[in-house]
Design goal:
The chain is α+β, with helices and mostly antiparallel strands. It has helices at about 5-10, 10-20, 25-55, 60-90, 130-135, 140-145, 155-175, 190-195, 230-235, 290-310, 360-365, 390-395, 410-415, and strands at about 110-115, 140, 155, 180, 185, 205-210, 225, 240-245, 250-260, 275-285, 315-320, 330-340, 345-355, 365-370, 375, 380-385, 405, 420. It has two domains: about 5-90, Serine-tRNA synthetase, tRNA binding domain (Helix Hairpins, Orthogonal Bundle), CATH 1.10.287; about 105-420, Bira Bifunctional Protein, Domain 2 (BirA Bifunctional Protein, domain 2, 2-Layer Sandwich), CATH 3.30.930. The protein contains 13 helices and 18 strands. The strands form five sheets. It has an eight-stranded mixed sheet. Strand 12 and strand 13 (about 345-355) form a beta hairpin. The longest helix is centred in the N-terminal third of the chain and has 29 residues, at about 60-90.
Length: about 425
């Protein structure tokens, strides 16, 4: 969420972000509502001041009653205006960095780095679906029977391989200074509003209704299943004032993740590339509100993703996302795509973003600097690993002529085997 003062002082830049991020938003309406709010607030403050003066005397009782009646009429109007403004503010896109490519969609993302070369097979390579069936790693049919569309069972070596990937990544991130966590996957809406998943991506989130009563007699709030550990990690310090000496905060969270994939109708119908339920390790950084410091963290996070894929011996490339493919809150965003032989293409496996104070303002996270000022810090996030999507790349890139799959050396000590074979 952008500060309304920032919006007013940087109107042209915000208008440019609205246009180039393909957002339908009436900025003038928001600014008019804000003007109306300030006018009403001045009127209320004046009436309150008059009421305070009258309270010092027993005279003018009728006038005091009139002021009380006016306040009773105006204060609900102010509360309603505040709600309207907040609702609109949640949909204002963040401005974007000067080096972000301007473009309408993913076809205009910019490839900025190639890492490794796609393997040339001297035999007819299989896709991950055939490999998984031959090696008894994934049961798709019974997964659909039990869980429905996009359901699956991981089996045998695939189970150990997926757990190995999580542990390998957690160890690597802990060595980089990240505090590992297993986070709640059921969260209240405040966490999702804070991360920016609400209202923009609400259709992708599963809602869990809770009709039960609390001890207080109130009805329990609905909760939601997270599609990444990011909302839970960010909300960990929600409504807190940090000390500057604490920064930067580095958290990495392991979680089961859930996505409805409503926006992907007709895409990736086979296999485990696009599914409803998966495992993931996510990273977040909360740092000082300084663009140079945030850029250093952005590059560090991106390098961690590249290092993980290098250890897994997987060819990949880095894309800088254009304005039309980066989402409301992103100031700067890069995706890392891994080579998938069966697709004959690079496909997204990691994503790194700098959102400046767009999330921390929503979550009311601030830090106190050495001068005693309370400032909203910057927040960044990055994919550590997501599986079983990464299993596609591992199985397909490391398959052997005899139908077996070689395990990268970095993973062998975690999973306990060097290859998967019949």
């Amino acid at each position: 969420m952008l500060d309304i003062k920032f919006i007013k002082e940087n109107k042209k830049e915000v208008e440019k972000a609205i246009k180039n991020k393909n957002v339908s938003f009436d900025l003038n309406k928001l600014l008019l509502l804000d003007e109306k709010k300030h006018s009403l607030l001045l009127k209320i403050e004046k009436l309150r001041s008059e009421r305070n003066e009258l309270s010092k005397s027993k005279d003018n009782i009728e006038k005091a009653k009139t002021i009380k009646k006016c306040l009773q009429d105006l204060e609900p109007q102010l509360a309603e205006l505040n709600e309207q403004i907040l609702e609109m503010q949640l949909n204002v896109p963040n401005v974007y960095s000067g080096d972000t490519p301007v473009g309408k969609n993913d076809t205009q993302n910019k490839v900025i780095e190639l890492c490794g070369s796609p393997r040339k097979f001297d035999f007819t390579a299989k896709d991950h679906i055939e490999l998984a069936k031959n090696l008894d790693l994934i049961d798709f049919e019974r997964g659909v029977k039990v869980s429905g569309f996009r359901g699956y069972y991981l089996k045998n070596h695939a189970v150990k391989l997926q757990i190995a990937l999580m542990q390998f990544t957690l160890d690597k991130l802990e060595a980089e200074g990240f505090i590992p966590m297993i986070v709640p996957t059921l969260v209240h809406k405040e966490a999702l509003i804070g991360s920016g998943h609400f209202p923009e991506a609400k259709d992708e989130i599963y809602e869990i209704s809770n009709p039960g009563k609390l001890a207080s007699g109130k009805t329990e709030e609905s909760t939601y299943l997270v599609g990444t550990a990011e909302p839970s990690l960010l909300a960990y310090r929600m409504n807190e004032i940090l000390d500057e000496s604490e920064l930067a905060l580095q958290y990495c969270g392991f979680s089961q993740c859930y996505r409805s994939e409503i926006g992907s109708y007709g895409k990736d119908l086979k296999g485990v590339f696009r599914i409803h339920e998966f495992m993931k390790v996510e990273q977040i950084v909360i740092c000082e509100a300084d663009h140079k410091i945030a850029e250093k963290w952005f590059n560090k996070l991106l390098n961690i993703s590249k290092s993980i894929l290098k250890d897994l011996e997987l060819p990949h490339r880095v894309l800088q996302m254009c304005t039309g493919d980066m989402g409301l809150g992103k100031y700067k965003m890069c995706d890392v795509e891994t080579w998938m032989p069966s697709s004959n293409a690079y496909r997204e496996t990691h994503s790194c973003s700098n959102l400046t104070d767009w999330q921390t303002r929503r979550l009311n996270i601030r830090y106190k600097n050495k001068d005693g000022q309370k400032i909203y810090p910057f927040a960044l996030n990055n994919t550590g690993i997501a599986s079983p999507r990464i299993l596609i790349a591992l199985l397909e890139n490391h398959q052997q002529k005899d139908g077996s799959v070689k395990i990268p050396k970095a993973l062998q000590k975690y999973c306990g085997f060097e290859k998967i074979s019949n």
